Amino acid sequence: MVEPMNWISEVVRPKIKTLFKRETPENLWVKCPDTGQMVFHKEVEANHWVIPGSEHHLKMSASARLKMMFDEGTWIDVALPEVATDPLKFRDEKRYVDRLKDARAKTGLQDAFKIGFGRVGGLPMTVAAQEFGFMAGSLGMAAGEAFVRGAETALEKRTPYVLFAASGGARMQEGILSLMQMPRTTVAVRRLNAARLPYIVVLTNPTTGGVTASYAMLGDVHLAEPGALICFAGPRVIEQTIREKLPDGFQRAEYLRDHGMVDQVVHRHQLKETIARICGLLMDVRPAAPHRPRRRHPRPPEAKARRWIPPTR
């Protein structure tokens, strides 16, 4: 015997459910890697990509770095030179040209560097930031040329040069040409030293490989964000090589500070103030104080007629 169909439960309710169905965006919430806490995406973005409560520092785009650093979030973009797109005609699972196209569409940048010139805490400054989202911020010919152009801009305008390093190392698709950028960037740093211009490096998570082995460790002052991984070879590779368990926190910013490789670990919210203060000291320049016009109070009429009379003996 066939049971009669319930019109209300099987016809009306499904239609009502589909009528009022709402789709939740995938990026509405951010999960903290340390505590598993779910935080509203807009709240994390407004907090400079630092998880409230746990203070975990998430990765930050190059454009967001520059906006955080420069006064009023405005700067002048430094034009970066063009280089050969695929000099080795490299191909693995995918053509190198196609990987570059995907990375450019994803980040809106031509390569893994963005450089700006403006004022930080009232001081003129040239700031470069590596974009980890562009092929893991890897160092290739374009990135090397960008770093050198940033150093040349600092030399031309006589400003400090500040670098936010974030990279997975040299770019394998460019072979020896990517490794050649290590000595080229070192020469650019030497030119800054000869001109007595400060070169400040901020090590962010992660800074590894050939970048750590070259310009990321040549700064006059090395700052680091909390919990940043800073190394040449990763801890997993080292453990497999020496067959020993590494100490807790090995190659993290706090461990390297305690062992003399990093000068100071600075919270992201205090980076701008710290860098402006350091550059002001090294350049022997104080940030200009805001102009405040003096108030002149009118003198009373009787004050003009007063005259000092010496006391009589």
What's this, in brief?
With 313 residues, the chain is of the alpha/beta class. It is built from 12 helices and 9 strands.
Alpha-beta content class: alpha/beta
Number of contiguous helices? 12
Largest sheet: 7 strands, mixed
* Helix-residue proportion: 25-40%
Strand order of the largest sheet: 3-4-5-6-7-8-9
Write down the Rg.
Answer: 28 Å
| Amino-to-carboxy terminus distance | 134 Å
The number of strands is 9
Tell the overall outline: globular
Unreliably modeled segments: none
SSE order in H/E notation? HEEHHEHEEHEHHEHEHHEHH
Explain how this protein is built.
With 313 residues, the protein is an alpha/beta fold. 35% of the residues lie in helices and 15% in strands. The strands form two sheets. The chain has a seven-stranded mixed beta sheet with strand order 3-4-5-6-7-8-9, with helices on both faces. Strands 1-2 form a two-stranded antiparallel ribbon. The protein is globular.
